[in-house]
Amino acid sequence: MTFTFRHPSKYIKHIEEKFDMKYKFKTKPYDHQLTALEKSWNKEEYAYFMEMGTGKSKVLVDNIAMLYDKGKINGALIIAPKGVYRNWYSQEIPNHLASHIEHKTVLWTATTSKAKDKEYQQLFKSDFDLHILVMNVEAFSTKKGLEFAHKFLNCHKTLMAVDESTTIKTPTAKRTKSILTLGQYAKYRRILTGSPVTKSPLDLYTQCGFLDEELLGFSSFYSFRNRYAVMVDRNFGGRRVQIPTGYKRLDELSLILKKFSYRCLKDECLDLPEKTYVEREVDLTDEQKETYATMKSAALAKLKGKMATAPHVLTQLMRLHQITCGHLKNDDDSITEIKNNRVNALLEVLEEVDGKAIIWANYVYDIKQIVSALSKKYGQESIVQYYGAIPAEQRQKNIEKFQDPDSDVKFFVGNPQTGGYGITLTAANNVIYYSNGYDLEKRLQSEDRAHRIGQKKAVTYVDLIAPKTVDEKIRKALRKKINIATEIMGEELRDWI
């Protein structure tokens, strides 16, 4: 990863002049991140509409630190979806929060214990200068989560931020109402998302309402809708309802947004690294946890007292991996479906990215599940497939459709075993690994389908990961350039189960 920077002494002077402070960045910002901070850091409300891969999380962490250094806040409440919020606790805050700040960061969980209660209590003690609470957005649909967040906000001068703010786009949703109410108790408010508009410009109303209900200049959602949407009457079951058929005055809306937001796309960030890697956690369902535990115990029992051979253990590893993806292939080649959150996690990621996306999956079952979900949400014409069952002639046509900027195709769904070699997919700069294989070469080759001559943008790679499972171990091994299938042998294999 490379940075384009000025001479160190000049850089420090530049920072001091921009922010009227001697702030010490833990990790050096890119130019576009500095711009975002310059525009926003001391504003009471602000929106970071920054595309995935441009580093909006770092911007927020630095913003929190700057306000703390100036004595403006002593608390931060960060709200994010389930698949994201642990990343704030384990990666974003430890990696980017300025080293001189004494702080306590606590991750909210629905389950309680004596140890967890003790940890919660530390949020309200003066042992630490800065108190940070990270909560999943789903907690705001519960009484327990609401009460704790309210207590935290009442005890601190707080910056409250909603990551992936489209999770509060629905005005009638319980969690939306709760978060908007609690936002009034925060001294500073931030929203973060790469795509603030997922379905229509009306998505903006409650996101901006969290920042300040006066920002858009409308007292109600309906007056906002009437200003920017073309509404028509329709009859459904004898009931007359109004639905939007188009939108108007969007230039006006765009000008209003610019007053309190910063928009950043990857192709505008000339100093970004060529490749950016992002992990998105996917929690196992209760059914997955039970099946996984049973399969793990059985696998370890088979290996006990025996020499572990690579093929044998890799088979067990594959079965555990399949469970994390939401299915299990039986000895008779039939498939047992397992309730899972993976498809929904994929759809959430796709809402955050602009333009076309490549989706790689290791199993044919996964591909079929993905195609079914995308067809329902985006239509069949938005997808092309590329795996063994697709005839060679059709595969080539599918590549051409995907590469065509004028086609309706948004998603390329395939597996690296078939599509990871020799093809060009530079129409996309977002690559999502729904599930990984064990073969390092196939992973690297599949990455290069988008990152090759003809690609004019930085490429973001997103891995869906089930934490504390073989799924996570596989991803870590691939990042370390380890070919699992050939380089882990003997007793080491037992550690993977």
Q: Any key phrases for this structure?
A:
globular, 17 strands, disordered N terminus, alpha/beta, 6-stranded parallel sheet, Rossmann fold, 497 residues, 7-stranded parallel sheet
Q: What global shape is seen? A: globular
The main pleated sheet reads as: 7 strands, parallel
Q: Helix segment count? A: 19
What is the CATH architecture annotation of the largest domain? Answer: 3-Layer(aba) Sandwich
Low-confidence stretches: 1-9
CATH superfamily of the largest domain: Tandem AAA-ATPase domain
Give the oligomer, counting copies of the same chain as homo and different chains as hetero.
single chain
Q: Terminal Cα separation, in Å? A: 33 Å
Notes on the structure:
By secondary structure, the protein is α/β, with parallel strands linked by helices. It folds into two domains: 8-273, Rossmann fold (3-Layer(aba) Sandwich), CATH 3.40.50.10810; 276-283 and 338-496, P-loop containing nucleotide triphosphate hydrolases (Rossmann fold), CATH 3.40.50.300. It has helices spanning 8-19, 31-40, 56-69, 82-96, 114-122, 143-155, 174-183, 204-211, 221-228, 250-258, 286-303, 310-325, 342-352, 364-378, 392-403, 416-419, 440-447, 470-479, 484-487; strands at residues 45-50, 75-80, 103-107, 130-136, 158-163, 188-192, 229-236, 239-247, 261-264, 275-281, 327-329, 335-337, 356-360, 383-386, 411-414, 428-433, 459-465. The strands form four sheets. Strands 3-4-2-5-6-1-9 form a seven-stranded parallel beta sheet, sandwiched between helices. Strands 10-17-16-13-15-14 form a six-stranded parallel beta sheet, with helices on both faces. A two-stranded antiparallel ribbon has the order 7-8. Helix 2 packs across helix 3 (56-69). Residues 1-9 have low confidence and may be disordered.
